Amino acid sequence: MPDEASPGPAVAIDREACLGTGLCIVYAPRTFAHDDETKAVLQDPPHDDPDDVRTAVEACPMGALAL
Amino acid sequence: MTDTAPLLDPARVRELFDLRGSYMARVGGGYEGDPYPLWNRLRERAPVHEGSLHDLSDFPGDYFFQGLPEPDRPHFTAFGYAACNDVYRDAELFASNPEPIDLSRPSPTNTLLNMGGQQHRRYRALVQPRFAPKQVEWWIRKSIDGVVHALIDHLQDAGRAELNVDFCAAIPVLTITGAFGIPVDQALDLRAANDPMTTVGIIAPLVAARREEPGDDLLTVLVQAELTEEDGTVHRLSDPEIYSFCMLLLAAGSGTTWKQMGITLTALLQRPEVLEQVRADRALLRPAIEEALRWQPTDPCFARFVMRDTEFHGVRVPEGAVMHINLGAANRDPAKFDRPDEFDIHRPPRPMFSFGGGPHICLGMHVAAPRCSPASARCSTGSRACDWTLTRRPRGTSASTSAAPRPSPSSSTAEGAPDMAQYQQIDASLFGPDHVRRYRETDGEVGYLWNGVPILLLTTTGRKSGEPRTTPLIFTPHGSDFLVVASQGGAPTHPNWYLNLLERPDAEIQVKADRFPVRARTAGDDERTRLWDVVRGPWPNYDVYQERTDRVIPVVVLTPAGRTPRG
Fold first, then answer.
1. Structure ipTM
2. pLDDT value of residue B373
3. What global pTM score does this model have?
4. Which of A27, B188, B309, B372 is the most exposed place for a label (fewest CB within 10 A)?
5. Nearest residue in chain B measured CA to CA from A26
C-alpha cells in the first residue's frame, strides 16, 4: 500500500493538450480524475504507487502529462 | 429449442458474424495461420518495413480497413513499439486522412475518425464525456446489464450456446444500439446495412424523434450537442453529421467487442488453470481482459497517411505513402513486455496499443471492458451455479466456440425477481433437434420426461417454407386437450411454432408413441388466466418468463382432431 501521506511524484497536466481520453484514470485511478469539462485533474491528495503514476504519464496518448 | 428463443435471429447473426463468411472476407477473415511468429521475426529484423502488412504476412490481397486499400500509394509497416508510438503521437506527420473530409455527405469515414488537429478535438469533445470512465455506470445501467443477463438466461434455458454467435456477437450489437436508443428489432438491420443510405433510412426517423422528444441516450447527446467553431460561433450538428457519427460509433462499437470477447473467452477456456484463478477471484477478470487485449488485439492493424518525406526509424518514407501500424506486433515487443508471447494475466499494467494511440485513441475503450466483463463474469464464474463445458464446432460450419452448461447440484437463486425462488435450473443435455430425434427413435423412451415434466413433439407447417417443423414442448394434459405455452423463455417475440399455428392451426403431435392430428387455438383472456394456473403448477419457470417480456405469453389449447373443441 502506498503511504497516503507521501507526496509521490509531482505531475504537471497540460489542460490545452488534454483530450479527456481518461487513460490516466485507468492506470492511476487514485491520482487522476476528470473535472466537469472532462479534463484531467489531480486528486487531493494523489495516492497511487509511483510506478502506476509513471505508467499513467507515459500512457497519455496526448502527451499531456509530465513528471 | 424447447422453450426459449434468442433475442436476435440466430441464423441472421450467424450470417453476419461468421468469421469465415463473406461479410468478413474483405477484412481478412480468410487468414488461418498464427501471424505472430512471422511478425516477431520481422520486428527483430527492423522496426519499420517497406510493404503493406498483408503482403509482408504472405497474405496478399486488397483488404479493406479504415478506408484502405490505396493501391496507388507506396506502403510501409511499423512493427516495433517505439515506431508505432511515434506514428500515433505525430498526427500531423501521420494523418488519418490525406485531405479535408466532406461533412455534408453521410459516411462513417466523414467523421472524427478521419479528422485532424483542432477539428478532431472539437468533434471528439462532443462525445468524449459520455465515454469517460465515470460514465461507465451509465452504460452498464442503460444497456449492458440487462442485455447480458437476458442473453445468459436464454442460453441457460436453451442448454447450449454457440458462444461466438449467441453471446459474443449479440452483446455488443445489442448494447451499442441500446445505448443509442435504437430498438432491438433494428439492431441487425443496422449491422447488415452496407451502404450509407440504408443506415440513414433506419436512423433518420429516430433522430427526428429525438429532436421532438429527447431521451437518455446517445442519439439525444448528438442531437443536443453544441459545437463551438474556431471563430467562436456555436451551432448544432447537421443531420448528415449525426448520421455519420452514428455509422462510425455503431460499427466501431459492435465488431471489435464481439471479436475481443471471443478471444478472451477462448484464451480462458483453453487454459483451465487460469480460468480457475479467475473463477476464484473475480478481481482477476479485468486483468484477464486487458491481457487478452494485449496478447491478441482484435484488429491488429490500422493505417495513417504520410504527409511529408521523412526518415523514419531508418527507412526513407515519401510523402503520400500509407503507414500501416502493426499494433499486434508492437504489443509483443520484448523491449516493452517480458515473455511477450505468453498469455499472463498477472502482468503489471503497461501502456499498449490495443485501443490505438495518440489523439485518435479508441473513444469507447472504457466501455469495452465492462461490456466484456459482466459477460465473461457470468460465463467464467457461473453465477447461476452453472459450469460450462467447451466443445468445438466441426470446421466448415462456423468458426467459433460453443459451450453447453453443466448443471450443478446446488440450487440457484437470482437477485430481485420475486418468483426466482421457484425458478428451476434446467438440465438441457437433451435439446432441440437432438431432442426430437431421440424422442422419435425411442417413442419417447428418451425425451418424454424432461426435467420432471412431460414433453410432446408438435409438428406445424412452416408459414414461409410450407415444410413440416417439429418442436419439443412442455405440455400439461387438460381433459382430453393438451396445453402448451408460447413462452420462448420470455423472449420479446412469439416462437415460430406459434406463428405457424396462427397461419395454420391444424398440426400434429406425438405423445410417446402416439401420433395424431390436433387443432390449435389460443386461450382467450379469462380462460388464459385460469389455464395459466394449470400450466405454471408443474413448470413455475413460466412466471419468470412472463416477468421478462411485455407480451402476454399465449397459452395454446391443442384439441385432438375429430373432437369438439371446448371453451
1. 0.87
2. 61
3. 0.69
4. B309
5. B133
